[in-house]
């Protein structure tokens, strides 16, 4: 092979950002073990970063709006409110608005169901303003659309580690760093340039739970994602948009702490890995070609970056998106709402007893048990009625890359298998998109061991495998319809 091609895309686009930091004092408790309820301050601002993409020479209403929000989870109704507000402002069809959460656990739980708790009175007004401001953000991006070229790259970062660890002493699995567990270190990058070769944005797609900061942290924080963005933007220019990959079984090697400096260190670790690839990114519209031999002490083979062929540029304008549902069966042993409510009431009573005894450790444990049942009730009440969950997949072929958006939290095998099947094309995998339901979707091999993600999963063993096969089959069908991609 005498030519090495860098995957690229040509389309129109724009990028924009707003600060979406909630007010100090808002309800913040995200962790069952936390003893505080209100946010005491701000570590780093929460941000909303919006990437607008639309095809060249086609209907502008085919655009996709990709919005990355620094939140852990948002209720389905809130996602709907934001998408509807953006639709009304931009006229882009509702189904083409993709809201992906960075999943930072330092943002607090922004749910109106928590309005009765300390600081909860601030949640409703915050969410109302959030939808309005994000619609304005989309309008600002729409006004700045211009031709862009996207150059894709791939790096590696070992921040993410496997987090299903067997505590041998207790004889059970815990959610924490597993030194010998497999961890996908793939760091995908999309550099977005305008016609003046100015970097507008860098999309970073990486799979790692933002759980550096845990129950001891009382500050609003984007976790490691914040320092990563800042470091990339200060060095490379443009805005950095983060898409959370399939990180159901992946988290930081050093996490579950209260020190914001650790979160910043984790973020810079990912940023430096990304920057190592960014500085080596070839200029748009070029490919790396063998330029022949030069006689020196020996025959030296030389390579140069040269303008790519016209055929390649045509291929890079490919634009094809599809939305489809995959039915994932519910597990047969899902707990009932009645059972969970009874258990919650039991632990509330136990917490009251612990408070009478001023037993702080017991209070913490009881609050954690109450929180677990509260979240289980939230999941059960939000699930679609029936025997299966219709999981909505957004699959896009954009030039020489593949973009994939799904709701829920999926294990790393989801992205590793699909990337292997779709190689050599870059495959961007964004989870927690437009909804956090149906929650965790682990592979069948993890069921039956008492692992946290499996215990609270709503869908049955084999659901992950069903989803992977459905997407792979649909991709094969699309390729036959629109022609195979060429890298």
Q: What ranges have pLDDT less than 50 throughout 5 or more consecutive residues? A: none
Share of β-strand residues: 25-35%
Spatial strand sequence of the major β-sheet:
6-5-4-2-7-11-12-14
Query: Into how many domains do the coordinates divide?
Result: 2
Q: Kindly state the percentage of residues in helix.
A: 25-40%
- Shape, principal axes of CA atoms: globular
If you average the pLDDT, what whole number results?
Answer: 94
Query: What does the main sheet amount to?
Result: 8 strands, mixed
Number of DSSP strand runs: 23
| Amino-to-carboxy terminus distance | 13 Å
Structural class: alpha+beta
Please explain how this structure is put together.
- Helix content is 31%, strand content 29%.
- The two termini are 13 Å apart.
- The chain is an alpha+beta fold.
- The protein is built from 10 helices and 23 strands.
- The chain has 2 domains: 3-283 and 409-424, no CATH class; 337-382.
- The model has no long low-confidence stretch (mean pLDDT 94).
- The protein has helices at 76-90, 123-142, 224-236, 260-278, 310-315, 337-356, 360-382, 413-422, 452-455, 463-482; strands at residues 3-4, 8-19, 41-42, 47-54, 64-69, 97-101, 146-156, 160-162, 164-167, 172-175, 186-194, 199-206, 219-220, 239-244, 250-252, 286-295, 299-307, 319-329, 388-398, 401-405, 409-410, 427-430, 440-441.
